Each structure stands twice: as structure tokens, then as C-alpha cells.
Amino acid sequence: MGAISASAPAQAPIAASRWARRWLPWMLLAPVLVYLAVFYLVPLAIVIVSSVTDPSPSLSHYRDFFTDSFYLRVLSRTFATSLIVTICCLVLAYPLAYAMARREDTLVVAMLTVVALTFWTSFLVRTYAWMVILGNRGPITALFRMVGWDPPPEILFTRFSSTLAMVHILLPFMVMALYSVMKKIDPALLRAAQNLGASPGRTFRHVYFPLSAPGVVNGCTMVFILCLGFYVTPVLLGSPREQMLAGLIGSQIEELLDFGEASAMAVVLLLVTLGLVALYNRFVGIDTLWG
Amino acid sequence: MTAQRRIDPLTWLILAFIAAPLLIVVPMSFSTAPSLEFPPPAWGFNYYRAFFSDSRWLQPLLNSFIIALGAAALTMLLVIPASFAMVRHRFHGRALTNLMLLLPLMAPHIVIALGYYSYFGSLHLTQTYAGVILAHTCLSVPMVFLTLSAALKGFDRNLERAGANLGASPLRVFRHVTFPVLRPAFVVAALFAFVQSFDETVVALFISGRDAATLPRKIFDAMRTEADPVVAVVSTLLLAAVIAGVIGSRLWQRRRKRVNALAFAMQ
Amino acid sequence: MTTAADSNAQPQGAHYLDIVDAVKTYDGVRRAVDGVSLAIPKGEFVTFLGPSGSGKTTTLMMIAGFEEPSAGDIRLDGRSLVSIAPHRRNIGMVFQNYALFPHMTAADNVAFPLRMRGVERAGQQRRAAAALDTVGLASMANRHPRELSGGQQQRVALARALVFEPDVLLLDEPLGALDKNLREQMQVEIRHLHRSLGITTIFVTHDQTEAMTMSDRIAVFNNGRIEQFAPPLEVYARPATQFVGGFVGDSNFLDVVVSDPARGIVGSSTLGELNTAPSALAGGTAARLMVRPESFRIDAGSDAPEGRWNRCSVRIEGSVNYGDSVLVMGRAGEIPIRLRLSGSDAMPLREGDTVRVRWRPEDSSLLAR
Question: Which residue in C has a C-alpha nearest to residue B165's C-alpha?
């Protein structure tokens, strides 16, 4: 780059500011990066290292995990449940988001408020609500008794109750993901399709659904990943004999005090999760995952 | 596919499915029975009284407040300069830094909870305010970063240039122009961090306890052992706080719009 | 026939704002500003005119201090500005989207520069009120920008840029967002302000009509360079380059070769020998002849007016009737020609008709190819 032809003293402040400009971003980032390194990366590293060194250096934990049918069942159960929850959320959220996206009036503001309310309520509170509803002295059981099913079936502390509650808890995520994409679909495109001869059904299939696809992918990825690592609800509402991966990790620590084993499972969970995120990033781009 | 006036029953049903279960905790909290019988056989304020007089509930409530405040403050302090750096500067390693800042959001809490259990255990930071605040700060960084980045990206740089052009030094530009315009976003980001810390359960289960036990941890334990309606009381209070917050912000937004429309019409 | 050098001849008087060989390079490769030099006397209204990406806004930003020249200098009243931070340059600027502070009232916006300069509260309020009054917005002082219309915001931005009596006023395409009537009204008001304040003004636009009506002189930008810096009429009638001729106003271009520079005769392969003004180009030079569409007259043949006229036949391919004139598109031989006929010449012409037209040598410009 050419030097500035003005007098020499003018060079000094410009040179100084150039130096500052080069290092300024790093100076601004240093606090948070150092902080994360010390208080996040280190504990993460501890988990990874422990999985192969606790109680003694070996890959035995991983070997156990991938050969023992018990662990493999937990893994497949976790995947299966996550898949079921994701599909149920999609099926329920799509019509709702669709109805909300087509309107502009105060009613839709009310609906969004309701969805926002549930979105902001803690997982624990919503889990407790299901505990009450599905409990053996709750309204569902009462309903069973009323139709003559006595003693009523145990629905709490089963895979069903935990799945149902997870669908309920993760539904707002899916709704918001779908809604934000659907809102941007230009109604003129749909009118154009009909004008060109497509019936409402075909317009949906060939125009609307493809346009809503980014929201579907976004929502499903988010819900699936959240479900894989879900701890609170399956532990509180699920069956203790049919645990999911996060719950199993927890009980390895609490009951068996086997840190190495738990760490190995945690590493597996982490790798699967990060792998999914990486996959999403490769095909879509990570910036869109959180809107 | 024109917009219809009526909403079909399926939509109402789904909306009901989302909202109704929450509502059940409210009447439950007014039950006086010692079990989760619903509908409650008798009504009263028993469990409210029990909650507000029990230090085993009030202490965790206070703890959660203090911890959430601390985590929110620390997160804001760390992330505000970082988001300026990420949005306004181009440099090598930006993509990697972006990944680092979002990592705590991507990894399941149970994984890092394990790490904190061992790490903070050996540092004697478990069951202290400091430990939980330090952990919750990490977990809040991504959300606050995303919120602040979005606000910064939408910020009109010409406002800062105008400030400088009119005679304000860079520091005065930040004080008189950048900060006031970004203040709403700062508030929202801090709120996100606060709520996230207040509600966080998994990590708290592993590293908070005794004197520094958080409210979610206490709720979790209570749900596992007692499952009595006191939890309904806490749930109702939390629900009320969320309702107040969400409806309050909607009303505030509408009030701003109405003021503008009125002023415009009066010209 | 004038050359580029003649067009840039400086009028007498001190050069108040001097841009000396300014260059702005991005990433070491792209030259957004490629050696721009301008000498602007005090009190002149200069327009930077050019298409998007021509470097006019970048040059403006360098004057304001938001871009640093990669080479060259910018001097105000003899002092170099380049090392002075933007907030110390005392230059007024109106941004494209006005950049009014949304969290302050109009009055606070206008008082802001005074506040930054340490003027006491009473003085701030008094001078801000006076500035708002000058632009006719005294009653809107306590409104916030979002409560003001586009035109009103624009005026507040003007008041804010002028309240501290800057040395220079910069305007970055300020009228782009306004509708036609409001734009024309604002053009008049800005000109009026300029004349009453006598402030050196630089106005950036891509709209050539705006440049023509408002400026003392126009600097035509293209690809980071200035192709001509001259008063509007000269830019229009005597464009220095083909780009200027084509960008400002409508024009026809013919490829010619200079035959006799002293007598102003050029040769066209299609139209034969043509008369122009005596030129500075050497004989045998390949050049372009530019004739504006409105320079043509219908040649009835019977009347033979004084002077040397050029004549040709045009085969009509289409026409558009504008009411006060007719734009005729056709061909002279193979060369596409546009004619703008008005008055008695503006008669209905059909596709396929051939019409004979003439134009005067002085109405053409000879440009190097």
C-alpha cells in the first residue's frame, strides 16, 4: 500500500491505530475465551480423559458400552424415543404453525403469547404438571375408573408418560421453528400456483411444503438433539427399568459411583450430539439453528 | 389458500394440548390434601403457608435469585465486548471462535455436569454460590451471544458515524448513541441469562447443594421423594412470574406502538 | 472542441477544499478511488455524479474521515485532514438514511453537536430551536424521529448538520427515499440554504437531473476516476469522454475518423463526410462523434438555411409520443439513431417511413475513442 504523502508526524497516530485495530478484536474476546477455556473446556476435558483413565488407562468402558446388550438397548431406546418425540412434535406443530402463520390479527398474537408462555416455563414445572395429570390419583386415572377400567393401568413412570411429557415440553420449540419460516412465505406464490392451475392440495405439495422445509429441518434437528440429552423428564416420569442415556449416566454416578463408566457414556452422547450438529452445519449452516 | 376467518378445531386442540397441562398446577396448589389427588378434595392456603414458612424452600429460592443475578452479570460482562468483536471485526479464526462461543449450547448439560462434579469437587467449589455461578455463566454465554450479535448486526452504523461527525469521541459515541439504542437488547439478553440460570436443573443437581442448593434442585428432589402439593405452589408462583413477564412485555410493546401512531396522526 | 484538461481549468480564487490524488484500495487489489483530484473554492456547490460503485461515496467518506485514503491527501484551507479523527473535522454531514438518533427528540438531535462542543444548555436549546425554525420544523422539536415523516426527518438531519456552522457540508444521496414532488421541493430548499449560508457543499447523487439543476460544478465519476469536472451546461454540451456523454442525457454515438482537424471535417463509413467544430485531435485519429437526439431537425429540402449542416436519412423503426416531443428510434444505414423531435417537427411518423434530418456541426462533440 502506498504511503500517505502528508507530512511525517501524521504517520505516527495512524500506525498506532493500525496496531490497535489488529489486536483489538482479540483483546475484546480474551475475557470470554479464557473464561470458557478454564471453566468449560477443562471440565469437558476431564470427562473425556476420565473415560479412558478411570480407574486405570484403558478403553474398557467403551468396550463394555458397545458390547453389553444392556447399554446398547439404552442407546437404541434413546434414539427411538427421540425419533418418536420428533415425529409427534412435527405432526402436532405443523398445523398449528400453519394456522398461525396465515393470520395477522390479534388472535394470532394471543396464540403466540400462549406458546411463548409455555416456552418460558421451566421444564420442571411442566414435568410436574404431567405428574399430576397422569398420577394414580389424577384426572386421567379418574377417567379410566369412570369408564369401568378398575384398577386403572399404571401410566406414570412408564416410557409412555415420559415420551408424552417430552412431546409436550419440546412442542413449543418446533412450533417457533416452523412459524418463523412459514411467516416468510409470500402468499403471492400460492396465488400464482393456483392461477397456474394447481389445486389447493397440489399447491401445498409442490409449493408450500418445500418452502417450509427449512423450518422442518431446523425444528426436527433441534428437538431431536434436545431429546437425546434430556435428563429431567425421563428420570422423573420414566420407568426406572427403561432408562434413557442421560438418566443412565446420572445413575452411574449416583448409585454406582463409577465416574469412568459415566464419562465414557457421556463422551458417546457428546460425540453423537456434536456429530448431528456438524451434519446440520454441513448441509444447512449452523447460524440458522437458533434463528 | 386465502386467510380464513375461523380457526379449525384441530388447531384449537393442539393449542389446548400445549396450554392446558400447565393450568393444572394452579388448582393443585390450593389443595389441602397430602397427596396429588385431582380434583383436590379440599381447598385452602395450607401449602402456600407451608411454603412461605419453610426455610428449606425459601433458602433455595433466595439462592437461585442470587446465583441467577450473579450469572447474568458475569455473562454480560464477558459477552458484550466479545459480540462487538465478532460482529464488527474480521480476523482469522472467527469461525472457530464462533464455534467456541456456541459450544455450551450444543453439548448436553449432563456431560458438562459430570465434568463440573469432578473439577469443582477437587477445587472445593461444589455446594458454593461461586461454583454454580461460574458454571451457569458458561451455559448462558451462547444465548446471550446470539441475542447481542443479532442486535448488533441490525444496528445502523450510520448512527455512530453521525455521532462522530457531530463531534463525539469514540467513547462518547458509545455512551450517547450506541448504548442507549442497544439498551433494550442488553436488557433482553440479561433476562435470558437470568431465567436460564434460575431454571437450570441438571448441573445444579450435581454441584449445588446444602447451603447453595438452587430452587430447581430442591424441586427435583421433592418430586422424587415427596410428590406432595407444595411443588404445585412453587410451580404456580413460577408460572405467575412467567405470565407477568410475557404479558407485561406484550403490553409494553403495544403501548409504544400506540403512542407512535397517535403522535403521527396528530401531525 | 474542448479537451479534458480544459474542462478541469480552475476558476480564480483560493482553493478551500483540495483533494490531491486520492486513492482507496481494498484488499490490495480493488481500487475504489483511483487517483481523484479536485480543487474546490470556498462556497461552491459541487455534485459528485456517477453510477453505483464509481467511487463518489467512498471519496465523500474520505473527506468525512470514515475511510482512510490509501494514498493521496485531503486538505481543508491548506491543512491536511487525513490524520484528523472524524469527530474533530468540523464537517457537517447528512447521511443517506438520515441517521437521526432514535432515542432523542428532534431538538436533542439538533443540539447534540453543540453539546459535544461544550455549549451551555441555554445556548444549545436556543440555537437548536433556531436551526429547526430555519428548516420550518419549529413545531416538531419535541417529536422523536419515528414520529416524523421522511421529508421531516430529512430536514432535521439538515438542521443538525448545519447548527454548528461547519466549514463544509456533505450530503450523501439524501433525497433518494423521497417521492418526486418532495424531492424537487427539497432540491430547491437545499439550494436556497446553500446560497444564504454560502457554505462549501458537496452533494453525492446518481441522478443526473438533480446534478444538473443544483450544482455550480459537477464532478462525473466513473470507475474510481473523475472524467470531467465542469459546470452543468458544459458537462452536457461538451462532454469530455464518451462515458460522460452517455451518462448525462441521452446521446447518439457514431464511429468516425478525423480527416481535416483544422476545418473540422470527419469521415464516417456510413454517412460520408461530416462537419464538426475544429478539433484538437490529429488527422487520422479514430474518434466518436456524439450528437444529442434533440439536436436533429426535419430537413424538408426546399429550405436551405445558413451555415454548414449535416444531413442524413433515417429509416423509422418505432416512436414514443411524450406529448411535448416525440422520441423516434431508427437507423441511418446500419447505425441506430435516436431523434427527439418537438414543435412543428413532432409529427406522427410510421414504422417503415424514411425521414430526412439535419443537425448543426456545433451541436456535436468529438471524443477520443
Answer: C87
Q: Mean of the pLDDT values across residues B138-157? A: 93
Placement of cell 468516425 in the chain? C256
Tell me the CATH number at B175.
1.10.3720.10
Q: Which helix (H) or strand (E) holds A235?
A: helix A232-237
Which of A18, A109, A122, A144 has the most B C-beta neighbours within 10 Å, making it the best mutation to test the interface with B? A122
Q: What's the rounded Cα separation, in Å, for the pair B18 and B10?
A: 13
Query: For residue B226, what pLDDT band results from cuts at 50, 70 and 90?
Result: low
Is pLDDT at A160 greater than 70 in this prediction?
A: yes
C196 and C258 together in one domain = no
Helix (H, G, I), strand (E, B) or coil at C362: helix
Report the C-alpha gap between C7 and C248 in whole angstroms.
16
pLDDT band at C26; cut points 50, 70, 90? confident
Contact state of A128 with B223 under an 8 Å Cβ cutoff? yes
Q: Which residue has the cell 464516417?
A: C268
pLDDT at A30: 93
In a 13 Å sphere around the CA of C104, the CA atoms on its Cβ side amount to 22
- Strand-pairing partners, residue C229, are C219
Q: Are C299 and C358 in contact (CB under 8 A)?
A: yes
Structural domain boundaries enclosing B216: 54-225
> In total, how many domains does chain C have?
2
Other C-beta atoms within 10 Å of A37: how many? 12
Query: Hunting for cell 448441509 — which residue is that?
Result: A283
Whether the predicted pLDDT of B190 surpasses 90:
yes
Q: Report residue C276's pLDDT band, with 50, 70 and 90 as the boundaries.
A: confident
Q: C229 and C240 in contact (C-beta within 8 Å)?
A: no
Burial status of residue A212 (CB atoms within 10 A of its CB: 0-12, 13-18, 19 or more): buried
C317 touches A at CB < 8 Å: no
Strands in C354-359's sheet, in edge-to-edge order, are C297-298, C354-359, C310-321, C325-332, C335-342
Given this model, what pLDDT does residue A11 score? 39
Shared-domain flag, residues C188 and C282: no
Name the closest residue on chain C to residue A12, using Cα atoms: C83
Task: Confirm whether B209 is domain-assigned.
Answer: yes
Asked if A38 and A171 sit in the same domain, the reply is no
Helix intervals (H) in A37-120: 42-53, 60-67, 69-101, 106-120
* B30 lies in some domain: no
The number of residues in chain A equals 291
| A163 Cβ under 8 Å from any chain B Cβ | no
Range of the domain at C91: 4-246
Which residue does chain B place closest to A222, by CA atoms?
A: B106
pLDDT in tens, A89-105: 999 999 999 989 888 78
pLDDT at C8: 45
Quick one: CA dihedral A131, A132, A138, A144, positive or negative? Answer: negative
Pairing of strands C200-205, C168-172: parallel
Amino acid at A252: Q
Examine residue C303 and state whether it is found in any structural domain, yes or no: no
- For B77, the enclosing helix (H) or strand (E) is helix B55-88
